[in-house]
Structure formats: structure tokens, C-alpha cells
Amino acid sequence: MFKTKLIIGAVTLAASAAAITLLLQNNSFSRSVSSVECPAEGDRFCTFTELSEVYEEGEDWEITKRESSDSRVLVSAIHGGGIEQVTSQLADVVAGEEYSFYTFKGKLTSGNFNNLHISSVNFDEPQALTMAKEASIHISIHGAEGEKKKTLVGGLNENLRSLISEHLEASGFYVKEAPEHLDGDHPKNIVNETKTGQGVQLELTRAQRKAFFENGKISYSSRNDVSNQTEAFKEYTEAIRAALKEYKEKNL
């Protein structure tokens, strides 16, 4: 009888612990979904509509996109042009003619980041959202601060994250899990606004992006001159494409 009571007590405690764990997880998820700061810290605008009411398309910013016959794969750079330099070029080459490509480019002579950056969880430009929602696989390329050559990997697609990390590391690039403020794990982050509800966010430090061009120059003229690209640029983009190919073969 005493042994039976002990067993029942142990089962009850285990069930209670499981219930508490589930409650904490649900609360954590609820907080992550609801805690969207708008505008995000450091951003001037909360929505794309607000931005477009102040800045003019073609003059201050532009959108470049290319929709492939296979819209299941999207490679994007929503902070392209002068906002986070080199991200447009990287996304364009990774996408190639095989995958869909989207970039929002800042064209101001200065202050692109301060004036045209809208955080990934608030970025609601209609064309970008449509392309993301049509995709099953989404890689979003960003720029981060940092004087060490590094790629910070985030997003909710853990399998593709792992493959990209493996291929980049095999090509000699340093890869690390993204810290919380760059981890791209919010469900409202545009990288995760896909049919599968997941994607991969790559944050490349400034040092890594500078390494893709001769003499480390990433000014407008330098980064838009293909002849200035280093071998590292080619190796980096080829590594991501190889990871994409492997992932597609297993999952599509």
C-alpha cells in the first residue's frame, strides 16, 4: 500500500512538472508572438506605408525582384542597397536564375540605415510578403556589425540552417549561432512568413562583407562592380547554393 502511494505520488509530480513546463513554453511563445516593437528600436518607421509616404520610389529607394518558375525557393535582402551593404549582391547571386529573388534597396546618399531600415518582424512591403508566402524555403540575407569575419545563422528552419552552416564551414567560413536579438526566430519575421512557417536568416558581419571585395571596399561603385569581387564571394555563394540543392533534394 505504501509503495502504491509512492508510485502514485511520483506520477502526480511528473504530470505536474510536465504541465508546468508546457505552461511556461506556451507563455514564452505567447510573449514572443505579442512582443513586436513597432517601430523597432533604432527604426524611424513602423510600416512600409509610413516609409513610402516620406521617401520616393526610384529616387530614394527601389525594389528589384525576379520570380523564377519555381517559386518555392526565395532568396531575399530586405535591407539591401545602402542599408546593409552587399546583401543585395549576395542574395542576387545565391538566387541566380533558378530561385526567386527580392531586394529592397536604399538609395539615399547617406543615412540609409537610419531612415530606411524596417525590422524584419515589421517589414510588410506587399511584394515581399506575397513572395514569402508563396515560398516553402526562404533565405534572408542581412548585414551585422563586427570587425571579425563571421556569419550568424538564425531562423526557424533548423535543417536548412544546419546544412548552410556545414557547407560554409567546409568552405572555410566562420559560422556561429545568432544571438537572441539577431536569431530570426519570431514567427512574424518575414523570413518565416512562408508556407512552412520557417526560414533561414543569415547575418554577415561588416568584416565578412568587406572580404568579398578587393581592398575591402564596399562603397556603391565597388560593390556594384562584379570585377571587384574576390574569390571568397564566389566560394560563399556557391556554398549556400550547394546547401540549398541538398536540402531541396531531401525535402521538396
Kindly describe this structure.
- The chain is globular.
- The protein has a seven-stranded mixed sheet, sandwiched between helices.
- Helix 3 (87-95) packs across helix 9.
- Helix 3 (87-95) links the parallel strand 2 (73-81) and strand 3.
- The chain has nine helices and seven strands.
- By secondary structure, it is an alpha/beta fold.
Mean pLDDT over all positions: 90
Helix and strand sequence = HHEEHEHHEEHEEHHH
Strand order of the largest sheet: 1-3-2-4-7-5-6
Identify low-pLDDT runs.
Answer: 2-33
Please state the CA-atom Rg, rounded to the nearest Å. 21 Å
Strands, total number: 7
**Helical content band:** 40-55%
Give the CA-based shape. Answer: globular
Terminal Cα span: 56 Å
The fraction of residues assigned to DSSP E strands is 15-25%
Total of helices: 9
Largest sheet, if any? 7 strands, mixed
Class based on secondary structure composition and strand pairing:
alpha/beta
What is the strand and helix layout of this fold?
Layout: H1 2-34, H2 48-54, E1 61-66, E2 73-81, H3 87-95, E3 100-106, H4 112-116, H5 126-134, E4 137-144, E5 151-154, H6 158-170, E6 175-177, E7 200-205, H7 206-210, H8 220-223, H9 231-251
Parallel strand pairs: 2-3, 2-4, 4-7, 5-6
Antiparallel strand pairs: 1-3, 5-7
Helix pairs in contact: 3-9, 6-9
Keywords:
alpha/beta; 252 residues; 9 helices; 17% strand; 42% helix
